Amino acid sequence: VFGLSSVAQVVLGRGDFGQHLSINLGFGIGVTLGIHAAGGISGAHLNAAITLTHCILGKLPWRKLPAYLIGQFLGSFTAAATVFGLYYDALYDYTKGNFTVTGPTATASIFSTYPAPYVSLLGGFFTEFIATMLLLLGILIIHDEKNNGALKGTQALLTGILVLGIGLGMGMNTGYAINPSRDLPPRVFTAVAGWGMDVFTAGHHWWWVPLTAPILGSLAGVLIHKLFIDFHNQPVPESGNEKGQPVVETS
Length: 251
Hints:
It is found in: Membrane. It is built from ten helices and no strands. By secondary structure, it is mainly alpha-helical. The chain has one domain (about 1-230): Glycerol uptake facilitator protein (Up-down Bundle). Helix 6 runs antiparallel to helix 7, helix 6 (about 120-140) packs across helix 10 and helix 8 runs antiparallel to helix 10 (about 210-230). The protein is globular, with a radius of gyration of 20 Å.
């Protein structure tokens, strides 16, 4: 809701009520609050690519995957519907009732990502891959207690800042989906809310890239962290013992 509504305000306000920075701040704040809301309940799985990566790595049982994906889909779909209702009057005024995916009054990009006109399909795929790789790498670093992990209680804020940084540096080409469950449900919503099936054909059938590239980027981020950081981490010392000293167990 925070992210999509910030996009809506920039687009429908014709730049008078925010710019690129405000969109990135909106998504960063939304991620921070989402982690605070669900972190203690479910681990705050807001991203389908991350959830699938955890399943592949054995950190999350596969039997939980459907429930997490359904929750992510419903949450994102409901967010799109909420923003649509919140800004319906502004949408109608901006488009004169003609909801389009492309053109001078295109509004589908409020809800889902679309590549810039100059970006090739390969270039867009690479952008999403790299952005999600850095997202996963950053998250793992923030939570890496064996290295230099963030202070307890600051992880949510730092993850929000991480998303902000990705948007500030890599948002121009594709709108940085970096999350299948952030992109597909709102796209489905726009398809049934008046934009039609153009949401799946625009940008050379762009819709599948935000589904696949983040998953591959997520796995790459885990690999890089494992090879260049985790393998070189020193074990966390046991309580009351200096690092590197053996721990004597007594019965």
